[in-house]
Amino acid sequence: MTAALALVQVILPLIPSITTGLAELWQFINTVRAAAQQTAEWTPEMEAAYQASLKATATDPAYQPDPGSATV
Amino acid sequence: MKRTINFLSIGLLLIVGLLAVPACKHLDSGADPLVVRVEQVQTTAKGAFDLVLNIDNANRNFYRTNVAGFHNFCEWLRVPTPTSDGGTLPRASAMLWSLDAEKLAYKTGTATSNSVVTALNVVIETANQATVWAQAVKIKK
């Protein structure tokens, strides 16, 4: 048991150095699962939250074009 | 020390299936199947775009040099695009905004199901491209 805990303590910090994108992938999988379970139309609050999430991408660094590239 | 691990295949198979196959769950009474389908795609497509854009953003120089097609696709998603409310959003978000507007217009009876399906198919096609690219890109460190 002690050895297993020690091994976990060694491995966990290594995970970020092994991969990038793992957190995003997990979030994506959860998104897909939640969408698959949807059985009702969005409430007005859910609709507003979704629209707000789209608006937020205007300032999200991941959504910004390379410097000096595309413009409207 | 480098590790090449592709964690994306399993999750991305899920979204391809979700986008390509109509939903089978029993809907709550009063729920319009088309509206629910659109909202499912809105959710999963947003997730797909978030995924590829964050992967690319984590190391743009690497992908620009070594996987130019993927980076160029991400840049295409990022192009500032006018929206119906007079604002500007990245193209990925602008197409989702447009689909959302069509859905809302359909719910109020000012748009037809055909226009909704047309906008829906555009988003599905683009999201499928995103998932294909994400599968093709190796996550390296």
Oligomer: heterodimer
The helix-strand sequence of chain A is HHH
Number of helices of chain B: 6
User: How much helicity do the residues of chain B have?
Assistant: 55-70%
Shape of chain B: elongated
**Structural classification of chain B:** mainly alpha
The portion of residues forming beta strands of chain B comes to 5-15%
Major sheet attributes of chain B: 2 strands, antiparallel
**Tally of helical runs of chain A:** 3
> What is the spatial order of strands in the main beta sheet of chain B?
1-4
Main sheet properties of chain A: none
What is Rg of chain B? 17 Å
User: For the residues shown, what is the average pLDDT of chain B?
Assistant: 85
Q: Regions of chain B with pLDDT < 50 over 5+ consecutive residues?
A: 1-5
On the 0-100 scale, what is the average pLDDT of chain A? 79
The largest contact between protein chains, plus residue counts on each side, is: A-B, 41 and 58 residues
